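Is this the right way to post structure tokens for a design question? Let me know if I should format differently. Anyway, here goes:
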């Protein structure tokens, strides 16, 4: 690769020069702050910076260790081959809104404008979904034997209407949203929905192997060694374990990498959906 010829680096790479000037300006601001601040304030600011750098270093170290653990031990160190991850299930949550605040439409001259209805344009109804996917399986002929799609579940529940309204009678079952997803809610969905779906759809030939459910480090996620989850995960001879991926690493989960983005694109292409259709 030939670098551009110039009398000085500033002429060759002006964007780098601008970056250097920005760094110099930031350094001058930092020096001015340290000069004007009191000793205890300087100590506090330096302690916060040290803490932030230490946290970033630890996070990067954990991320590297996680990636190294995904290599097959048989080929190391001569040949580095990643594990097939055939026994790993990725789970994650995502919010979906019924509609967006603004849409752009191209209408014919005699076409009526579409109508959207919501109680408050600044409070559009949304629902959270929990998805679980695994790696697909193919036989020697290339025929798909397992699509890897465990399922996707909305955080909703059904409740009888408490009073009459213009659209329903009292006692009619209506779908309500789970407004707060806590550890108890996550545990209930894992034990009562995710685990039964895995046991139902997992390939029969692989049911003797250990299965890992990979989740992120959200505060609402449960402890992998919780007794309730372990009892349900090991029932009927299964060996299903819950593991947490490194913090701040959404690129290690296939749902964050592509599945949710694809789903969001398909969802926003719809004009407006009813909650029951969404769920």
């Amino acid at each position: 690769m030939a670098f551009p010829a110039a009398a000085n680096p500033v002429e060759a790479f002006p964007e780098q020069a601008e970056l250097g000037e920005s760094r110099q300006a930031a350094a001058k601001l930092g020096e001015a702050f340290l000069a004007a601040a009191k000793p205890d304030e300087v100590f506090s600011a330096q302690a916060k910076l040290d803490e932030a750098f230490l946290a970033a270093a630890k996070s990067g170290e954990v991320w590297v260790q996680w990636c190294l653990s995904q290599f097959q031990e048989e080929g190391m160190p001569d040949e580095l081959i990643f594990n097939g991850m055939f026994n790993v299930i990725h789970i994650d949550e995502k919010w979906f809104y019924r509609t967006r605040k603004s849409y752009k439409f191209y209408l014919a001259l005699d076409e009526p404008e579409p109508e959207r209805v919501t109680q408050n344009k600044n409070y559009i109804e949304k629902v959270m979904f929990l998805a679980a996917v695994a790696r697909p399986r193919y036989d020697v002929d290339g025929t798909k034997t397992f699509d890897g799609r465990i399922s996707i579940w909305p955080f909703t529940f059904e409740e009888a209407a408490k009073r009459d309204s213009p659209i329903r009678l009292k006692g009619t079952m209506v779908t309500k949203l789970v407004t707060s997803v806590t550890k108890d809610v996550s545990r209930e969905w894992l034990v009562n929905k995710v685990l039964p779906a895995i046991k139902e759809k997992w390939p029969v030939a692989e049911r003797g192997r250990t299965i890992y459910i990979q989740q992120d480090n959200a505060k609402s996620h449960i402890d992998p060694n919780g007794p309730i989850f372990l009892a349900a995960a090991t029932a009927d001879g299964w060996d299903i374990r819950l593991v947490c991926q490194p913090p701040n690493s959404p690129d290690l989960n296939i749902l964050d990498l592509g599945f949710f983005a694809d789903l969001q694109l398909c969802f926003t292409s719809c004009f407006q959906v009813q909650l029951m259709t969404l769920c």
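Format looks fine. Someone answered above. Worth noting: The longest helix spans residues 39-68. The radius of gyration is 26 Å.
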